[in-house]
Amino acid sequence: MPALAYYVDAATIPPGYAFAGDSSLPPPETFSGVTPVTNTTATITSSVLNHPHWSPSLSASLYKIDGWGAPYFSVNSSGNISVRPYGSETLPHQEIDLMKIVKKVSQPKSNGGLGLQLPLIVRLPDVLKNRLESLQSAFDFAIRSQGYESHYQGVYPVKCNQDRFVIEDIVEFGSSFRFGLEAGSKPELLLTMSCLCKGSPEAFLVCNGFKDAEYISLALVARKLALNTVIVLEQEEELDLVIDISRKLGVLPVIGLRAKLRTKHSGHFGSTSGEKGKFGLTTMQILRVVRKLEQANMLHCLQLLHFHIGSQIPSTALLADGVGEAAQIYCELVRLGAGMKVIDIGGGLGIDYDGSRSTDSDISVGYGLEEYAAAVVQAVRYVCDRKFVKHPVICSESGRAIVSHHSILIFEAVSATVANTPTMSSLGLGLQYLEKLTDEACVGYQNLKEAAVRGELETCLLYADQFKERCVDQFKEGSLGIEQLAAVDVLCDLVSKTIGASDPVSTYHMNLSLFTSIPDFWAIGQLFPIVPIHRLDQRPGVKGILSDLTCDSDGKIDKFIGGESSLALHELEGQGGDGYYLGMFLGGAYQEALGGLHNLFGGPSVVRVSKSDGPHSFAVTRAVPGPSCGDVLRAMQHEPELMFEALKVRAEECGQEDELARAALSSSLIRSFHSMPYLVTNSSCANAIANNNAYYYCDHDNINNASATVVGEDEQWTYCCG
């Protein structure tokens, strides 16, 4: 009797055919003489997993770290992710072990740690500085090599990440080459004005977005404060406000306009471009703006042309096409008498999220910084030289490409639902449950056995599905018991796995909220590289998807870079293990500002880590715990103090008259309000102080002698706010 037929008849696994750990990689052995059914879906099973000797370099290849991670991330000899803070210029002894940061942050203060709870955002200002310098260097090189007769002067669009310390770093790091900021709303304008007071006086403050009288008045006040402010017209109607308010305030404005180009790309991020784009002026509207400014004797105030093809521009060919079209408009504005000085090419400088360098993907681009800069400079120079127009200052609003790499989200797996299907014997089931099936179900069982005897795999699968479906219907009708249904489930699942028709995937439960920390995955299907940050010297043995803590079916990650529907993971260690940590990389843009409070899970803890000459090659220069339960409740208009008082009254009403008992209960409630919403996963975190005023800080001048600030006891709520 063929092995498959024996297996179906006995409803157990024949001797010699082990199925323990069905979720392991590579797939389990199949029965002799049975050809597995080919699975055409993308899986993480790769030839690299079959390598006889595992190594960190094989992990780097498996997770494509050398593609999306270069030049900032690599795998070290210990099997941990290393950060290269200076990019390709980083020396081996300057690399920072990411696991050492996690241990420093999560260990209690009594053990020399910071006592912070995960999830965690690690910010790397050295990487941020390198991104800025690399972008500037790429344009400087293109300008020199092509004989361009002006300069590059970029701005950072603060919408990508409005964190105070990120923006202050950008202003400080970019001051020497006049790097500025871009705002798209009134609060963004306020923060950019404040931050640029410490920047270069020549740095641009570009004012984009829809504008009302208050916005325009504030932008003109910025000019009064000697900030190099440009008001970019997004709508024709905004010009009347600019002219009127500038006269009332006695401020001569610098005006730009945003043009709607015909050029656009077809990807998800290209929807803001083209003739039907959300922002910008058509050619007719541009002409009317020019005439109105001419009539107001303010045409010389029009000095900047702005456009935006879309984020994540996939190729330099598309980029050059759009820049060339915009350069033609720029030259026409010069011909019409405008005082043009700057061409602002907007955003669109993409990053390679999957390392594929594809020109046909929303998560990849087919160029690097140098190729991007060269294409822009060449396109502008070519058009201006043909029209005998002076080369303009080139400005770009690169946000994603500047901040994405410098921020890493670290989270921990708290448990896993293993994909192994139990045998009947492990469930206390036997053949008697299959023998007690109804006559109709018995026919399906008999058909399945006969197909197995004949070795007809496809027919066997068909009969197994029909058999299971018929038994489910009978269970719903009440003619089949739960033990019989369980026996049928086990039998059909094992049949499917035996002939290779199923691909078991485990679910790893993460101490994380997808909606708070990775909202773009849920909202628009944006993929980010997610990899274990340690144990990369070990062969991963599980195929898994990631599930978050929220009570929402969408709270899972089941799509990964490379077209994979699962991720290669390591088995979780038992009690007393060090935990299993994963990192989401290239997520420094947009995710924090877009994150919500689904299930009232707040943001992660945040640490700022700089390179140092200390024993661990790094220093934590700032650390802030994530929002507490009280913080997120307060964000939804609840009042934690009043809630605490109500619970105290209820405790007294329920007979908690003993003073010590009431004090213990009050203390427990206070700790709950002050703790983070996320799970406490180990004893070292159990004593972490969740107080938003706690931080670990050191000045750059004393970076090697940083010490933790002592935090007092939890605040005692002894009052009731009216």
Top keywords for this entry?
24 helices; magnesium; TIM Barrel; arginine decarboxylase activity; alpha/beta; Arginine decarboxylase; single chain; Lyase, Ornithine Decarboxylase, Chain A, domain 1; 4 domains; eight-stranded parallel β-sheet; lyase; 722 residues; 13% strand
Structure commentary:
- This protein is of the alpha/beta class and 722 residues long.
- It has four domains: 55-124 and 405-419 and 504-626, Beta Barrel (Lyase, Ornithine Decarboxylase, Chain A, domain 1), CATH 2.40.37; 151-403, TIM Barrel; 420-499; 629-679.
- 37% of the residues lie in helices and 13% in strands.
- It is built from 24 helices and 23 strands.
- Strand 9, helix 10 (283-295) and strand 10 (302-306) form a beta-alpha-beta unit.
- The longest helix is centred in the first third of the chain and has 21 residues, at 125-145.
